[in-house]
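Justification of computing resources. Each target in the renewal requires a structure prediction run like the one illustrated here; the chain below, 306 residues long, is used simply to show the kind of job we budget for.
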Amino acid sequence: MASSPFMTGSAASTMPAHWRDFVALTKPRVMTLVVFTGLCGLLAAPGHIHPVLAFTAILCIALGAGAAASLNQWYEADIDAKMKRTANRPLPAGRMDRQSALHFGVGLSFFSVLLMGVATNWLAASILAVSILYYVFIYTIWLKPRTAQNIVIGGAAGAFPPVIGSAAVTGDVGALPVALFMLTFFWTPPHFWALALFVKTDYSAANIPMLPVVSGEVATRRQIWFYTAIMAAAAMAPVLLRLTGLIYGLTALLGTGLFVIFAFDVFRRRETDPSRMGPERRLFKYSILYLFALFGAVVVDRWVFA
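Resulting structure tokens:
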């Protein structure tokens, strides 16, 4: 009989979880980008925050992201076991029981939100709570197993960090963090679908309706190109709205131009061999560097022209 994600134990677990497995639950590599965008939102915000409180705010963003990732893996343990890319995670590999993962994720969630509220303000804490709940309930539980547009709508969860970082300083939500939210939101589909193209067999094996599985590669490449165009507009919006200066503008112009070239290489291909997905891998890897560069440029602009 298939196990339920709401079970509190796992028959496969035969030993107490190691601390490294709890760290693995938080998806530290994914967390790096989340923490960086949150930090940039904080550093680019008008006003001042004590360095200790700034560190605490970023710590809370990291803990909140780790909590969401942990609850995601708790819920998707059976799915992860069917995919080569995720089969060695702590739960499907049997190194941890589901009860431990559930308690860890819930505990981190409450701790991160409460600490953010006490250390900075309750608006930042509320947005952090919304981001966790959105990722777990809207994306993981509702959208991901039901629709090929899961990453489009669910991508909002990963776009909250700059808004949270900025709110921790200002106590409100300004135009720049909203612009950065939109940039990240529209960046997510081409970034994630580039990955989905070369791990399509994994999603197919797990019966996850990712776009390449449901609609095929041609439709996915078309959608990557479509959302790249929208993302390009979102990337230039902070300059056009005079929210950023010359440094960001040049970085966005050059970086987005290269992104468009890589996305077009993906769009024009009709390759179906997973071992020959060079342009797709290149776009996926570059998209990470691209977001780092644009957010870093926002901070440099703030410091140079403040």
